[in-house]
Amino acid sequence: MPDLRTEKNHAIHEINNRLFFRLFQVANTLHTKGSQAVEQLGMTTQRWSVLGALSRPNVTGGMSIGDLSRFLLMSRQNLTGLLSRLERDGLIERVTCEDDRRSRKVKLSAQGEVLWQQLQDPIHSFYDEALKGLSFDDRVAFIHYFTKLQNNMSKL
């Protein structure tokens, strides 16, 4: 007689493996295809994510590197190199904090703001194509489940 508990555990392990491998594949495809969508403007998905984070209305005065690192879930080491290249290209600037003159924030430069506006059409076209066939409710469900997964993983 088959052991249903063992079979169920095996099925759970198998589906977990498939799910995480698919997430790995999706992340790699997002990086590749997302970068292709914006490469004509000299962008990659990493650069796009930083500009997007800094373009939000509630951070027009800039963000500390620590806050930006936490928001993007990116190591400070990886972020520092990326910020140096964005600064070299004139897309961001480091400014002294008004409330603590010893601290610095990173913000979009005027050139970065212009580029961010130019990126909107290619980004939205990429989103539309990538999410083709998914309803509004499907997209909301994805956000819910990805948020749940990310929260669980952050507790590990």
Note down, in words, how this protein is organized.
The structure is a single chain. By secondary structure, this protein is mainly α. It contains 6 helices and 2 strands, in the order ααααββαα. It has helices at residues 4-38, 45-54, 65-72, 76-88, 110-130, 136-154, and strands at residues 92-96, 104-108. β1 and β2 (104-108) form a beta hairpin. α1 crosses α5 (110-130). The protein starts with a helix and ends with a helix.
Poorly predicted ranges:
none
Strand content: 5-15%
Query: What is the H/E string?
Result: HHHHEEHH
Helicity, as a percent range: 55-70%
Number of strands: 2
* Category from helices, strands and their pairing: mainly alpha
Average pLDDT confidence is 94
Strand arrangement across the biggest beta sheet: 1-2
What is the first-to-last residue Cα distance? 37 Å
